[in-house]
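Dear Dr. H.,

I hope your travels went smoothly. While you were away I took the liberty of generating a structure for the chain from your last submission, since the lab meeting agenda had it listed for discussion. I wanted you to have the full record in hand beforehand rather than looking at slides cold. The sequence, exactly as received, is reproduced here:
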Amino acid sequence: MIDKKTEISTTELNLFPIQGKNIELSFNGDRISSDGGLLLLRELDNQLNLLSSASNCIHDERDHRYIDHSVKELLTQRVFQIAAGYEDCNDCNDLREDMILKKVIKLFYKNFFF
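The corresponding predicted structure, in token form, is as follows:
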């Protein structure tokens, strides 16, 4: 996440809506993300259903009484985090405020780690 306090530009692009909300690309934002490619990756996964298929191959032997997140939720968060270039598991704490990652993962799971 980058806080931008200088330069003002009027270039603006509108993308496909997510959950009825328009996604706008502009370069005059106060807070910006460099992870915009994750939106395209999410669309690809929606069409191919790869993360669902992969998560179905993982047998979860954890005690269900103590589970907050399913294997699919954990796998989705991890794959998108790695795709964005954050390969360390502890990066998710820093990514809590990244608007793009938040949107992409919240699209799948409303109450994930954000």
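Two observations you may find useful: The longest strand covers residues 12-14. The mean pLDDT is 76.

With kind regards,
E. W.
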